[in-house]
Amino acid sequence: MNKLSTRIIFKFLLPVIIVLTALSAQAFDTVVLDSAKHRHPKSLGVYFQFGQVVLSHAFVKGENPNTEAYGTYYSMSAKYGIHTNGKKLWQRAYANPVYGFGIYKCFFTNDHDELGNPFALYSYIDLPLKRWQKWSLNWEIEFGVAFNWNKHEPRENNYYYPIGTYSTLFVDFGLDATVQLGRHFDLSAVLAYTHFSNGAIKLPNLGINMAGARLELRYVFKDRPLFRQYEIPEYKKEWEYIALIAPSMRQVAFEYVDEKNDTIAKAFDYGIVSFSTSLNRQISHKVKFGGGFDISYNTAYGAEVKMVNGEPEKSPFSPADKILIGLFPSFELVLGKLALIAQPGFYVYQKEVTGFDVPTTYQRIGLKYHFWNHLVVGMNLRAFNFSKADFIEWFIGYRIKWQKSYRK
Fold it and tell me: pLDDT tens, 335-346?
C-alpha cells in the first residue's frame, strides 16, 4: 500500500466513517421493525459497478510491461442479506441495518493479465443514515478476502508490481440511496471506494485502489416488513478496561546490485508483538471513546542488512533497540458484540535511526468481537505517518466492564 492510497484511507475515509456515525446517531433513534409480526426477512441482491483505478503509484501510472496507465474497471457481485427486525437493542439504535455475505468479481479493462483476475468473498453491513417512507440513505462496508492475484517479487523484470501475494484483504466503502420498487424489490445507486492490500505480510504491497459507481437490485423474500416507532431506553454509560496482545509479521525489502550489474530486491521476514491497554467510556448504544498506550517489540523497525558473498543477510541487533511506546485516543462504533475501531496514535519513545522511514505517528483501523462479555478477538490494519501501511495485527485480549454514576 503506497503513501497516496493510505492517506486516502486514514485521512479521508476514517473521518468520513466517524461523521457518518454521528449522523446516523442523530437521524432516528426510534425507528425499528415491528418484530412482533416479522422475523428476519432475507434478500438476494446483485450489482454491477463501473469506475476508475486510482493512479496511486508508478505501476498503475504506466511503468508496467504494457507501458500504459490503468484506466477503467468493472465489477459485479451477488450478495445474501439478512434484514434485522429490531428485536435486539443495537438493531433499534441503527434503525435496523442489513447484514450478510457475498461474492465479488473484478475485471481490469487494460491489465492484460499482469495483476491477475481477482475475486473476493466478503461480509457486509448496510447502516441507514436516514429513512423515509420509500427512500433511505445508507452507508455500507464490505470486508473480506480477495483471491486469484498473480504473485510477484518486490522487483521483477525491472518493474515494481503492486501486489506480491495470491490473496489480499478486500475493503469497500459505499454511500447509497435506495428506493423501494413495489413489495419485493429495492434499487440502490452507490458511490464506492475499493481497496486491496496484503498488509505487508509479503512484498510487494503497494495495493490497488478503485473508485466507482454501481447499481444494485435487491429482491426481498416474502412480504416487505413494516416499520413502527419505539422509544429506545437511555443507555447506562459504562467504563471498560481492556488489555490486548497482538502478534504480527511483515517483510522489509532491500535492493542491491548483483554480479551481473542487475538491480535485485530481496525481502526478509520480521516478527512483531504488541501489548496495548486502554480505558474506554461507552456513552451510547453506538459510540465508545477512550485512550491508552501500547508497547511494541518490532524487529522490522530500523532493520539493516550486511552483504555476505555478494548477497544481503540480516544484520544482528539489540532487542532494546526494537521497542516502541505509543499513546493513542480511541473511537469505536459499537454494533452489538462487534465494533469498528479507529485509533490515531503517536510515539513517545523509540530509538533514533538513520536511513529509514521513521514513524512518528501510527494509525489503526480494525474490527473486534466480544465473546462471553470478557474475551476480545479481532484484527487491525496498522499504518504510520498517515502515509504508509505497516502491518496487520491479529489480537486477543480481556476486558473488564463496570458502571459508575456521578449522580446522587
Answer: 999 999 999 999
